[in-house]
Amino acid sequence: MLRLSEVKNIPVKELAKKIFNGEEIFILDVRGTDAFDDWKVEGKNVDVRNQPFSEFKDDLNALEVDVPKDEPFYVICAKGKTSSMAAEKLADAGYDNVYSVEGGMQAFSEHLEPIEIGSLAGGKLYQFVRIGKGCLSYLIESNGEGAIIDANRMINQYDEFLNNTNINIKYVIDTHLHADHISGGKPMADEHDADYYLPPKDASDVKFEYKSIEDGDEIKVGDTTIKAYYSPGHTIGSTSYIVDDQYLMTGDILFIDSIGRPDLAGKAEDWVGDLRETLYSRYKKLSQELLVLPAHYMSIEEMNEDGSVSEKLGQLYKENHGLNIEDEDEFRHAVADNLPPQPNSYEDIRKTNMGQQNPEDEKQREMETGPNRCAIR
Ligand SMILES: [Fe+2]
């Protein structure tokens, strides 16, 4: 069959760059409406519209979305196949500026964008923003040594960054046993011959070797110090890390515009007291000047201008609703009554993060499909 138009593709890395640069982006998402409502590309200047391809694949007149005539726009689907067909159809009809997003939402959800947060003794702190899923991870670098906190499973993307910056990873640390995404912590540590640290209270069923990290422990990375600060409530082991008395990695206990949820619905009653204690007492004892760096964000409203996600602890005590519920009973209800649905495949994700199962790469990607659901607003 004669092919009228060559379909132009855009890699997710380039699309993400445009979003982080604040460019105006128009996206036509051709997945089913349920999938779209559950999870979509978001960004400050992103205009994203949905119409399933099945509705206009036989007749382009049935396309109700008003796609731009003269500006570039991007078609996305789940894995990049349907979007390619849709883009071809649009290109055949004379839309010269249409691009299909390579690998679709799945690839987009795996992209990590490194952003420099600030300086450290002898080095720098970077936040890796997984914009397609709302996960945040961190690289602490000082004098060529590095530590990674809450690594995601796409460890090749950290490796690319580490190779370009000549950083040698010594430590890989998780704030808690994750249930919403597969941790890259253990594989990352193995690959770099680094130590992998986990809070022991989260690790009782973990099947591989790890090092315990507990309240008050300190890890030296070059001239920088990471101090462990026990902060249970999301999980029983959840531990925060204070870096150089400037930064506070909160894991999934405290976000910018929301607070953590007890990670397993069955434990909500047990853990809500811990959550209260951490947020209303333990964190209050810390310097309010600490810059809070969470492991997730829920909405792009929480992003700073440069796409990073952070805020001073003192500011969060002024603005974050979850930190301002005086009455304990009311707090208990706010947490118990607002538990969002469990993340997709959370049981399998937990088992994977405990080394109890080791699914193939493709299976791991499927398990992570969908948004993160860690927070309570
Ligand atoms: Fe979590």
TrEMBL record:
- Tell me one GO molecular function of this protein: sulfur dioxygenase activity
- Entry coiled-coil feature ranges: none
**What Gene3D superfamilies does this protein map onto?**
Rhodanese-like domain (3.40.250.10), Ribonuclease Z/Hydroxyacylglutathione hydrolase-like (3.60.15.10)
Domain of life where this protein originates: Bacteria
Protein's UniProt keywords contain Lyase? no
Regions crossing the membrane? none
Biological processes annotated in GO? glutathione metabolic process; hydrogen sulfide metabolic process
SMART domains, A to Z: Lactamase_B, RHOD
Matching InterPro entries: Metallo-B-lactamas, Mito_Persulfide_Diox, POD-like_MBL-fold, Rhodanese-like_dom, Rhodanese-like_dom_sf, RibonucZ/Hydroxyglut_hydro
- Alphabetical UniProt keywords: Hydrolase
- Region described as Disordered: spans on this chain: 336-377
Residue ranges of domain Rhodanese in the record: 21-117
Please identify the protein, giving its name as recorded.
MBL fold metallo-hydrolase
